[in-house]
Write a structure and sequence with these properties.
The protein contains 16 helices and 17 strands. It is of the alpha/beta class. The strands form 4 sheets. The protein has a 5-stranded parallel β-sheet, with helices on both faces.
């Protein structure tokens, strides 16, 4: 039956906007009003419609339940005293249904007893408004609960997204972990800050010979994993520039002190909020051994016939076997030049292989770096004059205990490269300075074409040149810098390059005096 005083409403402070304004605004919310008194329904519907709420009105609880299930509203205004099914029963059924259980229900009734209100909250109501009521109060409470409902839905959506992200991440981590452990390639995860091991796979342990407990929480320096840490640091530096490091050749030291040749690829990752490095390694020791044996055998087999060929060409050039035409002499000159270049290539290969295998031992003697500079410049003067390049020397008189011939070979190689890649009229500066801890710092500075940043490290590898056509145009073998690095490694020194394309290059050599 209808509530007492059900039509007693106060319209204080109620103001309706013009129809044109209502039409232009978007619908604010969908509200279902369940009340058995038509006058109440009409009044509430009119007031809410004027404020751009979409209102559905029903007079029976069963009809309201069906409507709410079919098209769940954003909020329900529910009367208590209704025939057939009262408001408490309606609310209980709404809360028992999965599709309507979260819809906020505001009871509006003339029943003002405390027990009535308590029961309304017990069955799932979120608010209770006593008739007669102020329209502004009703609107304020509707806005409040719609806001709370919106925040609740947003929180639920966010929770679902987070759960999905957690689920996706967990699946990705499980996939990564399975791949990590099963990979035939040695893989290690280290911190970017100090290269401390956080995780290693079984293949990495087999390669290095270390047990897992002996690796984790230790650094690459602790294990002396990389005999040339500067090369590993150079590979790491590529990550700081935002690029991946792929297939950098390094030597790896095992627990037994053996050396393995590996290709390492690095990827920057984040693990537990910390910047880390994913190290993926490929052991190429056996491949390098076979390759080196092949090169050595071929080089030895080539050198003897090549010397015989050059001797025969020299004999032809003397004219003792008959005079050659001008074209024949030209062809003979080209053949002699190419044969001599092949001999240089074979000699460089053999030299490099001997340095790598340790067959070549240093013959250390006392000499002065100033004298070595003078010998180097004297040896390269003719080449510099022919290229119209000026050589400047800034030497210091520093005694060194080195293999003088090998250091002279290094300086000659560096100066030869600088001359080859300098423009006519250019200048090359050869300097030396004594640094703290008795380290001699040598620089070869040119004004040539420069070296791209991605080639600054690879030019020290075998058969690597800045431009593939340099071997043909400049007459180089692509082994000179690799030989320089091996010589300096034997002296416990180092070599690297700095360059700007179009502005020239500087090759640095650091050499212990003693």
């Amino acid at each position: 039956m209808p509530d007492p005083s059900s039509s007693s409403f106060s319209l204080m402070s109620a103001s309706a906007p013009s129809p044109q304004t209502v039409q232009k605004k978007a619908v604010r919310a969908d509200i279902l009003v369940i009340d058995d008194t038509p006058e109440n329904l009409h009044l509430l519907s009119t007031l809410l419609n004027e404020r751009n709420y979409k209102v559905r009105s029903v007079t029976k609880g069963v009809t309201g339940i069906r409507g709410a299930i079919a098209a769940p509203p954003d909020l329900i205004l529910l009367d208590i005293n209704m025939p057939e099914m009262n408001g408490y029963e309606v609310c209980e059924q709404l809360k028992a249904n999965e599709s309507t259980c979260d819809i906020p229900v505001i009871f509006i009734s003339a029943l003002g007893d405390v027990l009535d209100k308590v029961r309304a909250f017990n069955v799932g109501g979120v608010d209770f408004i006593t008739k007669p009521f102020q329209i502004e109060e009703v609107l304020a409470r509707i806005r409040t609960h719609l806001t709370l409902r919106r925040l609740q839905l947003e929180q639920q959506a966010q929770n679902l997204r987070l759960q999905q992200e957690i689920s996706d991440r967990r699946r990705a981590e499980e996939t990564f972990e399975k791949s990590f452990l099963a990979s035939p390639s040695p893989i290690a995860i280290t911190t970017l800050r100090d290269y401390r091991f956080l995780a290693v796979n079984p293949s990495f342990m087999r390669l290095t010979g270390y047990a897992k407990a002996a690796i984790l929480d230790r650094t690459t320096a602790d294990l002396k994993l990389w005999p040339e840490p500067a090369l590993y640091q150079s590979a790491i530096s590529q990550l700081a520039q935002g690029t991946r490091c792929e297939s950098q050749e390094l030597e790896c030291r095992t627990q037994k002190g053996e050396y393995r040749t590996v290709l390492i690829s690095l990827e920057r990752i984040t693990l537990h909020g910390e910047s880390c490095v994913l190290n993926i390694i490929n052991d190429i020791t056996e491949r390098k051994r076979i390759e080196n044996e092949f090169i050595s055998v071929v080089s030895h087999e080539l050198r003897t016939p090549m010397h015989s060929m050059v001797g025969a060409l020299d004999l032809l050039s003397t004219g003792e076997l008959g005079e050659l035409s001008e074209q024949g002499a030209q062809i003979l000159s080209v053949a002699t030049t190419n044969a001599e270049r092949l001999i240089r290539l074979v000699n460089d290969i053999l030299d490099l292989e001997r340095l790598k295998s340790g067959e070549t031992r240093l013959n250390r003697t006392h000499c002065n770096i100033e004298d070595l500079f003078a010998q180097t410049v004297d040896a390269m003067r003719a080449m510099a004059d022919e290229a119209d390049v000026t050589l400047h020397v800034q030497a210091v008189s520093v005694p060194v205990f080195v293999d003088c011939d090998r250091i002279l070979q290094t300086l000659t190689n560096l100066l030869s490269n600088a001359i080859k890649f300098s423009l006519p009229g250019g200048t090359i500066l050869l300097t030396a300075a004594l640094e703290p801890d008795d380290i001699l710092h040598i620089r070869v500075i040119d004004q040539g074409r420069g070296i791209p940043p991605d080639r600054l490290e690879s030019i020290f590898e075998r058969f690597q040149q800045v431009d593939a056509s340099d071997a043909r145009k400049k007459g180089g073998t692509g082994l000179g810098l690799a030989i320089c690095r091996k010589i300096l490694k034997q002296h416990n020194g180092s070599i690297w390059a700095e360059s700007a394309v179009g502005e020239g290059s500087t090759f640095h050599v650091r050499l212990p005096v003693e």
